[in-house]
Write a structure and sequence with these properties.
The protein is α/β, with parallel strands linked by helices. It is built from six helices and seven strands.
Length: about 230
């Protein structure tokens, strides 16, 4: 990326997509703040459980009152045994369901609300949420809480865009299929599926670069990214 950012916040930065995004944008950012419950390897790590109000307050204090150029919400969770043959909605614990909704839906709402003063000060502020293909109409997903949270997150993003239009804060949701993180590639291998059923990390990073590079006059609303040979293509 040619643009140099002053401050970016990445949520869910300890592993998977969040870790890859943090590593990728580190050299383009004067101050990178990374948030997760377990230690992140890049940026100024803040330990916080964003499913709680206390965790949201911790992040707000870490960001402070200075301008925030971008909030990248790369975190997410799902039910026990999700995406496997062992998944059963009927056997899901209530606590499991509540945690998925708290992390995937409530936390993004609370976090954006708490960080609005800092985002408003950014030169070209962006908010990017990581959704999923399972949040789209007619996608054959069985995971009830995760699917509901991803559908809901799309609604949050569309409403936020209208609410924040006068502030010219661009809000985007990316809905990918499997991304080729080490964890996903291991899951595909165990399931006997080819690596081509996952989207290369470099492709996702290119999409994020594109969104961050746009002028303040432009906003990408929503992007669907299925793997060419997988479901959803």
């Amino acid at each position: 990326m040619a643009r140099k950012f002053q401050k970016i916040l990445v949520v869910g930065a300890s592993r998977g997509i969040g870790a890859a995004v943090s590593e990728h944008i580190l050299s383009s950012t004067t101050e990178l703040i990374t948030v997760s419950r377990s230690r992140a390897n890049f940026g100024n790590w803040i330990e916080a459980d964003i499913s709680t109000k206390a965790g949201i307050e911790t992040v707000k204090l870490a960001v402070g009152n200075s301008p925030l150029d971008a909030l990248l919400y790369m975190g997410g969770t799902w039910e026990t045994n999700a995406f496997t043959k062992e998944y059963s909605f009927e056997r899901c614990a209530d606590e499991d369901i509540e945690n998925v909704i708290a992390v995937n839906l409530l936390a993004p709402i609370r976090l954006v609300k708490s960080l609005l003063p800092a985002l408003r000060q950014g030169a070209n502020p962006k908010v990017i949420f990581m959704g999923a293909l399972s949040g789209l109409d007619n996608f054959p997903a069985r995971e009830v809480a995760n699917t509901a949270s991803k559908f809901g997150l799309r609604g949050v993003v569309h409403a936020l865009r209208e609410e924040l239009r006068s502030d010219r804060i661009a809000v985007t949701i990316i809905n990918p299929g499997n991304i080729a993180t080490p964890e996903v590639l291991d899951d595909l291998k165990q399931a006997g599926q080819p690596e081509s059923n996952a989207i290369p990390l470099s492709d996702l990073l290119s999409v994020i670069d594109c969104i961050l590079s746009l002028s303040r006059s432009t906003c990408i609303k929503e992007i669907q990214i299925p793997a060419m040979s997988a479901r959803g293509a």
